[in-house]
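Weekly puzzle thread! Below is a chain. First person to post its structure in token form gets bragging rights.
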Amino acid sequence: MIKLFKEAFKRRHPYAPVAYMGRKNFEKSMDCKVLKLKELDKRMAQEAKS
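Winning reply:
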């Protein structure tokens, strides 16, 4: 049962692209800004209030 559960929610790739390439390299290649989830949540809350 536990094995089935783990397989169902298995990551497609063990590392996120940011973790694999590095934050700065990822930002340069994708021309974007990488944010932590906490920062993103704060921004979303501020936008919702405005």
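Puzzle host: Confirmed. Bonus trivia for everyone else. Residues 7 and 18 are 24 Å apart (CA to CA).
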